[in-house]
Amino acid sequence: MKSKLSKLIAFLLVIILGAAAAVTGFAVSAASGTTVTARSSTEKGSRDLRSALRDGIWQVLYKTGVTKLLAIDSQARTVTLIEPDTGAGKTASFDYIEELGLYQLHTDQADPTLNRRVIENNGNTAAVSDENGDIISLFCLDSASKEDFRYYNLNQLCGMARTCFEKEYGDSRGMRFTATMNADGSFYATISGMKDDKKEITYTVDMQTGRGTDSNFETVDLSQYAE
Predict the structure, then answer these.
(1) For 144, which DSSP code?
(2) What count of other Cβ atoms lies within 10 Å of the Cβ of residue 136?
(3) Which of 56, 65, 118, 135 has the highest CB neighbour number within 10 Å of its CB?
């Protein structure tokens, strides 16, 4: 009798917990006692949120691996695409169609209107598609306007790295320094000092502070060599 009663209680618990999971979006693991989040339809909708990108500075990563900066100003209804090498930018006005999650960018180029559809956006990372359906990834770096956002462009970092190298190791004649913005939303740059085909030094630094490490795992501060 006791065994049958235990089985009945266990059966009722399964029904009750199953109903609770369906209502709340949580499932309970009887084996481990842990709680595992289930994806409800509401949560799925938030993952697919196609809201407008928030104001500030974004890093843009294209399918080709090219990465740039994008400044968004919803009050002025402008976006500025910035070249990380020089800090030069091209500004376009935009209309945003909320129902479609669609940006219409108005430029003075041969193709005056470019469409960018927001397909994913959690506020810090986002993805948009272009007219060809290619995905462009975005990482929000800062809420500052383009006028207030301070950083060292890649050309500046190359010059700073050369000066740092000369101070630490001496002559840099015959060397070339190249820099790339890391394509991970960290806003770090990697600067390589090459002599012929040999890499003499590498610096990995924050583009806002100029601080980071070199390939010898030593801490460096390139900002002290900024002109």
Answers:
(1) S
(2) 16
(3) 118
d(CA 98, CA 51) in angstroms, rounded, equals 7
Q: Torsions phi, psi of 156, nearest 5?
A: -60, -45
What is the spatial distance between Cα 183 and Cα 189, in angstroms, rounded to a whole number?
A: 9
List of residues 6+ apart from 216 with CB closer than 8 A: 201
**Pair of tokens at residue 27:** 């499932």
- What is the bridge-based pairing of β-strands 67-73 and 56-61? antiparallel
Of the ranges 19-23, 61-65, 161-165, 190-194, which one carries the lowest mean pLDDT score? 19-23
**pLDDT at residue 38 greater than cutoff 50:** no
pLDDT, tens digit (0-9, with 9 covering 90-100), for 96-114:
999 999 999 998 766 678 9
Q: What phi and psi values does residue 49 have, to the nearest 5 degrees? A: -55, 130
Residue 41: is its pLDDT beyond 60? no
DSSP H/E element including 3 = helix 2-24
Q: Which pLDDT value is given to residue 46? A: 44
Answer for the pair 128, 119: CB distance below 8 angstroms, yes or no.
yes
**Residue appearing with tokens 């979006």:** 25
SS (H, E, C) 34-97: CEEECCCHHHHHHHCCCCCCCCEEEEEECCCCCEEEEEEECCCCEEEEECCCCCCEEEEEEEEE
Mean pLDDT of the chain: 82
**Could you give the CA distance from residue 172 to residue 163 in angstroms, rounded to a whole number?**
9
